[in-house]
Design brief:
The chain is α/β, with parallel strands linked by helices and 434 residues long. The chain contains eleven helices and 25 strands. The strands form eight sheets. Strands 3, 4, 7, 8, 9, 10 and 22 form a seven-stranded mixed β-sheet that branches. The longest helix is centred in the last third of the chain and has 19 residues. The two termini are 33 Å apart. This is NAD(P)/FAD-dependent oxidoreductase.
Length: 434
């Protein structure tokens, strides 16, 4: 067995934890801004944290540096429940310090923004003017929004970000959405869903259900109007349509074959195209609103472009069947930024793919072969339908005739699934965050 000698640079002189704010003061040579690490991981979301955890479990002395611009972790899973005061989910249930993870798994942490990547020289450039040299790089940077695909006016894009936040990125967007929901007095609450791949396919439909539940429970005269370019919901379609028509018949208006076109915040009016089944053509229509949740098309985080990695439909292309970028054998892409495989952009899929990637990378470091086709990820995704009931979907993958196949299984809507969802969420966050 080939063993590599790993070098270790201590990135910390101190770690000061003040409330939710983690400060990592990194020690550098005053005359040298240049650092080295074996594995650099950009992005400390579900994928990045799962990678560092599994890599350290497999090889505890491995030199790993995790770079993250945020000083705390915020969760998108279960955020819809917090937005609508469902299931007693608190703000603390969604937000975590990185401190426990760093202590438990003993890795280097740099709380800075990566501003450029030179894939040929294997260099990361950070906002503090420091440079990190890596041997292998894992990009787990998530998504960015592509507002330019739906709005051409830069000023309107700025307005949309603040006045109709997408809510697929945790933090300020969730705070704004919660305020919108809690202060809602009546009228139309619009949720616009993008075409193409986006983060957490069932999230907008779950959000529609839970906002409707909030309106129903508080006796608010309101409609949740869902604009969807698809024929039916992108995930668990039959279950969501059933919920719309039974639980929330008077509160949710689901509009399939509908494309968002424009928004006027002064007139409080949305322009959209809707397919006319009689004339077999799209017709332009307008709709008044009190509040809106406009989700633009998604694409991979801009670091993918800065690293000059090849993309397809905005997401990173990979060398099949691996998680290695097609543009560099030393760069891996995992989580929501990848677009090579038909994997849902979910927390569990990010976690599962991170484990597979970690197994392969350790095998690579030990000069061993790894069979991706026999070590495939799996997925489970839970969606709350009401205060006490949820539905889940499981995805199982296999290779057949060199083609990736998926088998999906959807549960019934039940209280038991809701209980399982809670156990899954708190189990996963405890596992990677402590």
């Amino acid at each position: 067995m080939f063993r590599r000698d790993f070098f270790k640079f201590s990135m910390f002189s101190t770690i000061a934890l003040n409330f939710n704010n983690l400060q990592a003061n990194t020690s550098f040579n005053k005359n040298n801004n240049y650092l080295k690490t074996t594995i650099a991981i950009c992005g400390a979301g579900f994928a990045g944290l799962s990678c560092v955890k599994r890599l350290k479990e497999l090889k505890p002395n491995l030199d790993i540096t995790l770079i993250e611009q945020n000083n705390s972790f915020s969760s998108c899973p279960f955020s819809n429940q917090w937005l609508t005061n469902i299931s007693n989910i608190s703000y603390e249930d969604l937000n975590f310090s990185y401190y426990n993870s760093i202590n438990r798994y003993n890795y280097n942490f740099i709380n800075e923004k990566v501003i450029n990547i030179d894939k040929d020289k294997k260099l990361l450039y950070m906002s503090n003017n420091k440079i990190l040299k890596y041997e292998y790089l894992i990009l787990s940077t998530g998504i960015d929004y592509d507002y330019e695909k739906i709005l051409k006016d830069n000023e309107k894009i700025k307005q949309c970000k603040f006045k109709a936040p997408a809510g697929l990125k945790p933090g300020s967007e969730h705070l704004a959405l919660k305020k919108m929901i809690q202060n809602f007095k009546g009228g139309n609450f619009i949720i616009s869903i993008p075409s193409g791949a986006y983060k957490c396919p069932p999230a907008p439909y779950e959000r529609a259900c839970l906002i409707a539940q909030y309106f129903k429970s508080n006796k608010i005269k309101a409609k949740v109007i869902v604009l969807d370019p698809r024929e039916k919901p992108a995930s668990k379609p039959n279950k969501f349509l059933n919920a719309f028509n039974t639980y929330y018949k008077d509160y949710i208006n689901y509009k399939p074959y509908t494309n968002f076109k424009d928004i006027d915040f002064e007139k409080k009016e949305i322009t959209f195209e809707s397919f006319d089944m009689l004339e077999l053509d799209y017709k332009t229509k307008k709709l008044s609103f009190e509040e809106a949740n406009i989700i633009p098309p998604n694409k991979a985080n801009k670091l993918i472009q800065l690293a000059k990695l090849e993309t397809n439909n905005g997401f990173a292309k990979l060398q099949e069947p691996t998680f290695r970028s097609i543009s560099s054998p030393y760069i891996y892409v995992v989580g929501d930024a990848q677009g090579q495989y038909p994997f849902p952009k979910s927390a569990q899929m990010a976690n599962s793919c991170a484990y597979v990637l970690s197994e392969e990378l350790i095998s690579r470091l030990d000069n061993k072969t790894f069979d991706y086709k026999s070590n495939l990820p799996g997925n489970v995704c839970y969606s709350m339908i009401s205060k006490t009931k949820a539905v889940s979907i499981m995805h199982e993958y296999s290779y057949k005739n060199d083609k990736l196949k998926v088998k999906a299984e959807v549960s019934n809507i039940s209280k038991e699934v809701a209980q399982t969802a809670k156990a899954w969420y708190f189990g996963l966050t405890e596992d990677i965050l402590g």
